[in-house]
Amino acid sequence: MLPFDFDYYRPKNLQEAVELYRHLRQSGRQPMYISGATELITLGRIDLVFTDAVIDIKDIPECREIGFDGDYLVLGSALTLTAIEEANLFPLLTKTSSEIADHTARGKITLGGNICGQIFYREAVLPFLLADSQAVIIGPEGVKVHYIDELFQKTLQLGNGEFLVQLATDKRHVDVPFISIKRRQQWETGYPLITAAALKIGGEIRVAISGLCPFPFRSNQMEAAINRDGLSVENRVSAALTVLPEPILNDIEGSADYRLFVLQNLLNDILAELDGINS
């Protein structure tokens, strides 16, 4: 049970959701958008999240869209990770999402909930960062579309009253060579230590990481080192490790030094898998 009460709203369209949020805020309330509610329940129980008005967006058609629209794969933010896995329209996303939490939890966790969540892993964003996907958001100023690398800076930068509606990915990028590897310190479905995802597009390997820092990231400097011509794999990996963002996590799951050791091995595995593949 949550230690606070809240009113529950279930709008049927985008505009109704935005207007509800605006009205509740003007009334002095603290509204929150949800779709799967897993994080509200988990963090609310330990007083890390509070709301007195929940706006559930799962009935909004645009937030449940799944499929190709012209040149883009469109995925709604209210899709569960299980639905994404079963459709398997973006293999890297399927592989990455299929290793988040356990099977039961994935039936409730949504794409938008994972990407916008407070728990810092947010692994579902990695494939979209790699594929130069676009994020569709809506708020008081209407619908906006941003490349996700512009909008996702450690977290998804949403304004007051805004929420993520969809992610659109160029269909040329959904079937390219990929690899996704998750390393855990303890048990089969425990919190991950590090997740590394990679795509090879236009002959270049792209890499995105979760669990090394207190935020997921894709680093241009790191990729430049990994793709440097004329160097051995060992030297390319060593160069990539010198340009990582900071801070490196040092917690109960693993020390900073251990995380760097794991990442070094992951980068070696990624290069062994993708280096010789044409794309």
Write the layout of secondary structure elements.
Blueprint: E1 7-9, H1 14-26, E2 31-34, H2 38-44, E3 53-56, E4 66-69, E5 72-76, H3 81-87, H4 91-97, H5 103-106, H6 111-116, H7 125-130, E6 134-139, E7 142-147, H8 148-151, E8 152-153, E9 155-156, E10 163-170, E11 178-184, E12 192-201, E13 204-210, E14 217-218, H9 220-226, H10 233-241, H11 256-274
Parallel strand pairs: 1-3, 2-3
Antiparallel strand pairs: 4-5, 5-10, 6-7, 6-10, 8-9, 11-12, 12-13, 13-14
Helix amount, in percent?
Answer: 25-40%
> What coarse outline follows from CA principal-axis ratios?
globular
pLDDT below 50 for ≥5 consecutive residues: which ranges?
none
CATH C-level class of the largest domain is Alpha Beta
CATH architecture call of the largest domain: 2-Layer Sandwich
- The sequence of SSEs as H and E is EHEHEEEHHHHHEEHEEEEEEEHHH
Question: Given the helix and strand composition, which structural class is it?
Answer: alpha+beta
Please state how the strands of the largest beta sheet are arranged side by side.
4-5-10-6-7
Strand content: 25-35%
Q: How many discrete structural domains?
A: 3
Distance between the termini: 51 Å
Number of β-strand runs: 14
As for the CATH topology of the largest domain, it is: Uridine Diphospho-n-acetylenolpyruvylglucosamine Reductase, domain 3
Give me the Rg, rounded.
19 Å
Summed up, the helix count is 11
Mean pLDDT: 92
Reported for the largest beta sheet, the result is:
5 strands, antiparallel
